[in-house]
Amino acid sequence: LWCTVVWRHLVGMLFPRESPSREVKELNGLWDFRADDSTNRNQSFERAWYKKRLAETGPVIDMPVPASYNDITQDAALRDFIGWVWYEREVVVPARWISDEGTRVVLRVGSAHYFSIVWVNGVKVTQHAGGHLPFEVEIGSLIRKDPTTPCRITIAVNNTLNLDTLPPGKIQYMEDRTKYPEGFFVQYIYFDFFNYAGIHRPVLLYTTPKAYVDDITVVTDFLDNAGLVKYKVSVQGAATGTISVTLKDKDGRSVASSSKPSGVLKVEDVNLWWPYLMHENPGYLYSMEVRTHIHVKDMYTLPVGIRSVAVTSTQFLINDKPFYFHGVNKHEDSDIRGKGFDWSLIVKDFNLLKWMGANSFRTSHYPYAEEILQMCDRHGIVVIDECPGVGIKDIRSFGNASLAHHLDVMDELVRRDKNHPSVVMWSVANEPASEMPPAEFYFETLIKHTKDLDPTRPVTYITDSNYARDKGAPFVDVICVNSYFSWYHDSGHLELIPLQLNNQFENWYGKYKKPIIQSEYGADAVPGLHSDPPVMFTEEYQNIVLQSYHSVFDQKRKQYVIGELIWNFADFMTVQGLTRVVGNKKGVFTRQRQPKRAAFILKERYWRLANETGRLGLPPSNHQCHAVKYPW
Ligand code: BDP
């Protein structure tokens, strides 16, 4: 498999990093903001708001970037707004970037939900469909046109979801005038999280020389003591010419080098990349320094973890050792910020993950910020990387236009995340209507495409369908199943969990003979609600649900169950509805990241699992230190 990697040519999307040849200027902070609340939701285009300063078109407010705009003000209409919102900011561009024609100046948006159009000084420079992946455009020639005018960046973002977007949605106009005023419409969504919108991740300008390292792809493996780094560098703006590639270890010592744009670097006495709790030194990263030697030199440094991933009919192997996923599903979600990128939140979440002994998470239900994956690389947290294919329920969302967009999104996702050692599997969808007849062609095409893009990682999607009716399961490498026994059906009947869960596993394994991850299970618990015997929504009920699942996992993990991911790491916001009390309360932490009782149950379990399944064994001192502190 490893030898047959097909290098598809896509323009690169390397994470912007500073280097001797590259500068980065963050544009985070306050932007001017205005929502287009005209009845036809189109006045901003009719009046060409991009042509002048936003403040000259009407009243603007301060809006932080990055952040969702929804929870920033006291205005319920803005919280629930559907349509175009406009962001604008004037940027002072360093004089040298303008005067030096040999400098490329790139504007990059980490993510904006959902559809974005970008203008610089009133000139449209790019547009992008999709709310969770970065996009960028070179703006050097534009800002050089008139170096005396400031650089005015205008970004219009529209959060409307339709049957062909990912995730899909539907807009319905309400015609009954006895109930709804003229123009009243509803955005229907088929997923269970608030459709937060705005500029969610950092916006920045960065430079490269005219001839620059556009993309790097690495695929790693090892043979005995030697690490193997297969790589390919692509250069834009000049013929590739001579380049130099140097792989350095953590101490900055060169361990392998080459002057070819592609090849295999061999690392003697390799330090492999290991998951957290599987090794005393997890998340080991080398640095790959890539230099071009065309008149102006460029340099880019890529972190590289050397590891292998493989799947058998009963196991998930990392570096040829069985890996058991004991982890969580997350959301990018918090008070006030919504889905806005926030380092404090990210670092807190990693501290909580490590505290509870989680070795993995799934990026339910969309790609997370690249900075989060970088943290995973460094801390050895294993990732199932999910695309935004959530809520594909309407048969029309299985049509050609939807599929074409889904394939494009996978291109963008793999291009962005292919070099992260933490990413061990792609998830192409969550709970699609995989029993519908078109699902067979849809998933066969989608999964095959993903494997063509990246033959080195297994591919899955997350099912809640019945094993006998699921049309896509034959194409996945790992079966991922969500189930909510004693919750969404047989409510209150905790005693049924073992029987139903056991049958779930036996049926899926019996039919497909593929390893299984319990990719979601859980129950809502309103923190502070108690009842014994347990009733739904109390902390006790959540605990018993978890423990009942765990007893079955403990039998099946000896056979073919390769992981368990709790739904959810933390409480999160949803649309208002009868089954949600200020959001989804299935978190084992509150939205403010305080533990419910269930967090301690998972913590005890995960550390025990780490001791049993982290095959390399941790140094005894590590274990004892925890055993002393938490004597379970
Ligand atoms: C699952 C969905 C997840 C929901 C969860 C729930 O995958 O997005 O939040 O149910 O209902 O089916 O809590």
Feature tags:
disordered N terminus, 32 strands, Jelly Rolls, carbohydrate binding, eight-stranded parallel barrel, 3 domains, six-stranded antiparallel sheet, hydrolase, binds beta-D-glucopyranuronic acid, 632 residues, Ig-like_GH2, Immunoglobulin-like, 28% strand, single chain, 12 helices, globular, alpha+beta, TIM Barrel, 22% helix
Characterize the structure shown.
The chain is an alpha+beta fold and 632 residues long. The strands form eight sheets. It has an eight-stranded parallel β-barrel with strand order 25-26-27-28-29-30-31-32, surrounded by five helices. Strand 27, helix 7 (400-417) and strand 28 (423-430) form a beta-alpha-beta unit. The radius of gyration is 25 Å and the shape is globular. The relative contact order is 0.10. The chain binds beta-D-glucopyranuronic acid. Beta-D-glucopyranuronic acid binds next to loops. It catalyses: a beta-D-glucuronoside + H2O = D-glucuronate + an alcohol. Its main location: other. Residues 309-610 form the Glycoside hydrolase family 2 catalytic domain. Belongs to the glycosyl hydrolase 2 family.
